[in-house]
Amino acid sequence: MNVVAFLCLLFFSGVAVAATPSLAPPEGFRVLDTPNDSGRSLSLVWKASPSDSKNRSIQVWLAESPGAAFKKVAEFPSNTRYVKGGDFPWWAQPAGKGAHYVKLSSSQAFPIEDGKTYAVKLLVREGEQEAWSELAEGRPAPNFFNTAQVNNLMFVLAFTGVLLASIAAARRNPHIRLRRIAGLDAVEEAIGRSTEMGRPILYLTGAGDMSEVPTIAATVILGEVAKKVAHYDTSLKVPHRDPIVMAVCQEIVKEAYVEAGRPDAYREDSNFFITSDQFSYTAAVDGIMLREKPAANFFMGSYFAESLLLTETGASTGAIQIAGTDSDHQLPFFVTTCDYTLIGEELYAASAYLSREPVLVGTLRGQDFGKAFIMSVLVLGTALATVGVVVGTENFNYVLDLFKDFK
Amino acid sequence: MIFLKRQLPLIITFVMGVAFTLQYYIPHPVSEEAITNVSKWMQIISGFALFLGLASLFHVHAVKIKRQVPGWGYSFALYAAMLGMIVVGFWSHGETRIDGAQTGFGWLYDYTMVPLQGTMFSILAFFIASAAYRAFRARSREASVLLASAVIVMMGRVPLGQFLIPWTWDVTQWLLNVLNSAVRRAILIGVSMGAVALSLKIILGIERSYLGGGRDQ
């Protein structure tokens, strides 16, 4: 009888032990300086556990030194905060995929300073049970290079090399055929028409300032247009929204008249400022169109809601209209209301097309190589990503990561 | 003089262009501080440049009034409005509200500028209608396709259209998400390549016509 009682006791105590296993602390816990950042943050890494669940929580405790008082800075379920595919490129991963990763940034509650060593430990809790991880230390520091963007830098350098090589090739062989761009072929026609009708030409450089590439492209095209205008002795009007763009355009137009051999025909007030306000500017330009009835309107640069207000008014006056913009949202309005529209990159090609200078034309060939490369990558990337999903492998990510943009 | 007018700007462009290209890859606070400082400098320069713009504006309209060219009355109205706004602005200490009460400056802004801007923006609705009429006339095969797509998208985006022809919603989504997105992305890729190429040309001094004058001087 005693033996049976002893066996029963042994069995039930065994069941009780199996039902409440002791909580294991997180394994492989490390604290590192957050890679590729501006400092003042730490990264915590530890291995994932099969027993991670939403009922089990992880608390992060931080101290300014191993001997100082610890303070709880974060708490979350243990089945969250994993390293996911796409978070980091494979060459700059702080931990393997599937491991836990938490970034602690400096906050008002707990400021983190660069160069100071901090102590961190994790507390795992489930019900009444608790388990502390080992103490780990880390020292935050700012980084001088974002290694996650090394692929981006490589492509920029490669593209620069291709452009320079294309320019060198164009210098050796200046006869490069260019695809016809109807909108640029029509520039001469528009200026000729204005001359015949004795009416001015209106040229707008868009809504942007000189730090924007479409505005720079618009000013470059203005130089080429101004040369032809000077040659035909037609009146040019360039109303502006930005005083700096106005100052640059004044210089460009002046030099264009000098180059065309007509410095006497240059008028200082051909470039003039109206206002920086979007709709006040639009109203003023619409007024110029209706009162002075320019025979040709050029809309180059970046535009917003004013695009249709400008071009529809211009269309109502019967002017020949040529637009060029990279503002894709405004393209339908320009295509609808203008006689010719330079779409996207054609705006940037205009300078080379109009001047036919080999150096500039060479860059267009470089751009074409770049586009061919991007198209090849799109096809390759789509194929690899699809095969990866079908086969169930992530090995293709080693190739796909090369073409991703990581911050 | 040629050095100040030509070479110095090219050197500054090259140095600043390379520096701020590299800045993109440097997360260090020094790099962030540099871009913040340059942004502040740009704001300061823009502030001073506004005087250039005002001088141009006053000059152009003063000449029109002086010569009494056709429409000189508009120039006079501009002078009156601008000077009136400046005087009232100073009188109101540049504030639109003081102690919760609207100032004269605030009144002028709320009851002249805002309605005028709203009027200009609302004209857009009528201009869209007239532009759409021109674009959707089915004079060619392409225009017919455009017309058919536009009708489907309009029906698919309007509650009544979805109620009357339910399938237009799915077709609209497909048109926007597949055809429209594909074309937009193609345009954006081309734009990005063009913008990078133009930036490189400017940084390397290959494109220098923005300085005024020829390229290879």
Describe this structure in words.
The complex is a heterodimer of chains A (about 400) and B (about 220). By secondary structure, chain A is of the alpha/beta class. Helix content of chain A is about 45%, strand content about 20%. Chain A contains eleven helices and 14 strands. In chain A, the strands form three sheets. In chain A, strands 11-10-9-12-13-14 form a six-stranded parallel beta sheet, with helices on both faces. In chain A, strands 3, 4, 6, 7 and 8 form a five-stranded antiparallel beta sheet that branches. In chain A, a hairpin with a 2-residue loop joins β6 and β7. Chain A is elongated, with a radius of gyration of 33 Å. Mean pLDDT of chain A is about 90; it is low at about 10-20. Helix content of chain B is about 80%, strand content about 0%. Chain B is built from seven helices and two strands; from the N terminus they run αααββαααα. Chain B has a two-stranded antiparallel ribbon with strand order 1-2. The radius of gyration of chain B is 26 Å and the shape is extended. The two termini of chain B are about 15 Å apart. The mean pLDDT of chain B is about 90.
Report, as a whole number of angstroms, the end-to-end distance of chain A: 73 Å
- Computed CA radius of gyration of chain B, to the nearest angstrom: 26 Å
Number of strands of chain B: 2
State the total count of DSSP E strands of chain A.
14
Biggest sheet, spatial arrangement of strands of chain B:
1-2
The profile of the biggest β sheet of chain A is:
6 strands, parallel
The biggest sheet of chain B amounts to:
2 strands, antiparallel
Structural class of chain B: mainly alpha
What radius of gyration of chain A results from the CA coordinates? 33 Å
Q: List low-confidence stretches of chain A.
A: 12-19
Estimated helix fraction of chain A: 40-55%
SS-based class of chain A: alpha/beta
Strand proportion of chain A: 15-25%
The averaged pLDDT of chain B comes out at 90
Largest interface: A-B, 86 and 65 residues
